[in-house]
Amino acid sequence: MTGAGSGTGTVLMIGTRKGLWIATSDEAREDWEVTGPHHDMEEVYSCLVDPRTGSQGRPRLLAGASSSWTGPSVRWSDDLGASWHETPGGGVRFGPDVDASVERVWQLAPGSPAGPDGVVWAGTEPGAVWRSVDGGETFALEEALWHHPQRAEWGEGYGGQAFHTILPHPADPASVTVAISTGGVYQTHDDGGSWTAANRGIRAEFLPEGQQYPEFGQCVHKVARHPDHPERLFLQNHGGVYRSEDHAASWTPIHDGLPADFGFPVVVHPHQPETLYVYPLGAGEGRYPPDGRALVWRSRDAGTSWEPGGQGLPEHSYVGVMRDAMSADDHDRAGLYVGARNGAVWVSTDDGERWRPVVTDLPDVMVVRAGRC
To answer: If residue 51 lies in a helix (H) or strand (E), which one and from where to where?
Structure first.
């Protein structure tokens, strides 16, 4: 497979609680070759297929792995996982003047297409954002966000306190949108010099009546956008799905028509900016699909109306899909991927109408990321 970022092959990274698996296919994405586990028995919460770097026409693969013995590390491969490299000490570490330690790398994201090729962003637990300028080999802490006066009041979601969303503006490298559970959405417009909360209109349903629309403190689960419409953002909250038309200055609920307003992922179609996907989970401690039916819900009109798609998905399912376990590739006929907590991963190449398995019986899937190779 040749031509990083423009090849006809497909590479799919599947991060789990017990390692990483890598699946490769052609553009049809019907038959897959799967290797793994890479980083055996380590938690892999974040992956990135980065077409800007790599070697011999292949994209660089990055994985945020966490060992219970040695801690977290960002590792990279320029040969589709045949070999891996890491910076001694892990690359993402607080300095000696900070009384904290990185527990997990929850997010890896490429820099803005309008910026330098080597920029990679990382979001960690505890809640911090980091920037690399050398393709993910070393990272520097975003100091202004770490020292933000509101940080002391950020809480923790059930999985821990972490920056799980990082969205550099596609046309303005100095503008970055991030999100943390729990804390909400924050933005910088001056290349990290300052950060401001951007949560107006997002409800924190777990707070008392009259206090449910605070400046910050929302339990945002994921934020997404289409690169051609950067001012429009979509957000899956702890309760509610939202759209912003003004780059997060305000948010409007769009969950009417869904069977539940709780969920983790939200994905925008790579070629259709009006089309987005969510995976609703019912209320209660179980957090499984409503009526026990695995369905990916699609809107073709930016959240005005919704329709389910699930042909090929399990008819009886009581497992969840995590915030980064749904994603899309950018083939001309885009592929949509869903990974579940029972270790199964499915792909759809017809905009979510029909699904077929890529692999089953893996450990608990935390993240799926796909790209060309």
So the answer is: strand 43-55
